[in-house]
Amino acid sequence: MYELMFLQRGRGERAGVWRCFEGGRNAVLTVDLMWELKDPEEDEPNLRVLLEHRFSKEKSKSVKQTCDKCGAIIWGLIQTWYTCTGCYYRCHSKCMNLITKPCVRVKVSHQSEYELSICPEIGLDRQDYRCAECRTPISLRGVPTEARQCDYTGQYYCSTCHWNDSAVVPARVIHNWEFDPRKVCRSSMRYLALMISRPVLRLKEINPLLFNFVEELVEIRKLRQDILLMKPYFITCKEAMEARLLLQLQDRQHFVENDDMYSLQDLIDISSGRLSCSLTEIHTTFAKHIKLDCERCQAKGFVCELCKEGDILFPFDSHTSVCYDCSAVFHRDCYYDNSTTCPRCARMTDRKQDEVPDVKDA
Q1: Is the peptide bond before 144 cis (omega within 30 degrees of 0)?
Q2: What residues does the Phorbol-ester/DAG-type domain cover (predicted)?
Q3: 61 and 90 in contact (C-beta within 8 Å)?
């Protein structure tokens, strides 16, 4: 059993002591919580702005936090500390004036793109054997400080700026479909955490061949295309608007806006199979509303004008084809077997030709 005690010293100073009771013996393990660790007793502001960081004063007394600037433990009981509300950078109050790195959220807001080269190393010599962030001298031999490579930026950092944190690296996902976490520096870890849900990856432009080798991507793309075809039914349906059906995709808003943009979290969930399950369930719910539950949406279905047989068709049905020009829906077999033009397009063309003489006569 351990007990934390504060022993009174001269002039009102105190030192922290852990008293250990073990096997009937009292052993005092002195932990160097010297009173000089305590910050001066002065009022600190609740909010401080520095290099576009918005630091909020923390009230937690937890001793498990680590200062991102100096790498030392934050003793919440006796030290004042702050957290950036934008990038979650934590530091002692006394370390704030030493911060040289701007808030990562600013980069996310203005840049919003990934490094898509796999570990683009430039070499320690190009870095002048200094940390890429704080410029501390570093070396692969650990003299004076160990050089640690960030798999995302390819650059080398000191142990204060690189804590051997791991994260999924976008470039390895896009090019190799590889999701094993790699060691990254602190600033890269924060940047990737803030970017993970942003739909900034247009796969068909970055690596279109990925769809030839990853079946799950093809499945998700088809589901997304179907959902985009369902969207016009919902935005004109009072019942769907009241039920807020489209809000089932509020965590992936880009799924109701396009079918080709992905976030890194989307790709992670595709690889794990989680996205396929959830999106299939939503797709089923949407289709059920249009085809079974809502008479108003059912009335917007199509009858195949080529065979004039079968059930009412919808553009998202798997056995249908949609005319590119007029959006009419047909059975897929009928559409491809038909050598003539689309009947609806033909009618529209004839109608326009009939209107031309009337305009001239007028």
Answers
A1: yes
A2: 52-103
A3: no
Domain ranges of the chain: 2-37, 113-195, 205-298
72-105 pLDDT per residue, tens: 888 877 788 888 888 888 888 888 888 888 888 8
Dihedral sign (CA 23, 26, 29, 34): positive
Amino acid, res. 258: N
Per-residue model confidence as pLDDT tens digits over 281-314: 999 999 999 999 999 999 998 988 888 877 889 9
Domain 113-195 fold is Herpes Virus-1 (3.30.40)
Please tell me the distance from the alpha carbon of residue 100 to that of residue 350, in angstroms, as a whole number: 71
Which SS3 state, helix, strand or coil, does residue 167 take?
Answer: strand
Measured CA to CA, the distance from residue 251 to residue 263 in angstroms comes to 11
Q: CA 308, CA 238: separation in Å to the nearest integer?
A: 30
Strand partners, 316: none
Helix axes 215-235, 274-288, angle to 10 degrees: 30
A 10 A CB-CB count for 142 gives 10
The Cα 107–Cα 26 span in angstroms is 54
pLDDT (average), residues 183-203: 94
Q: How far apart are CA 214 and CA 275, in angstroms?
A: 14
The DSSP annotation for 200-235 comes to -EEHHHH-TTHHHH-HHHHHHHHHHHHHHHHHHHHH
Q: At what angle do helices 264-272 and 215-235 cross, to 10 degrees?
A: 120
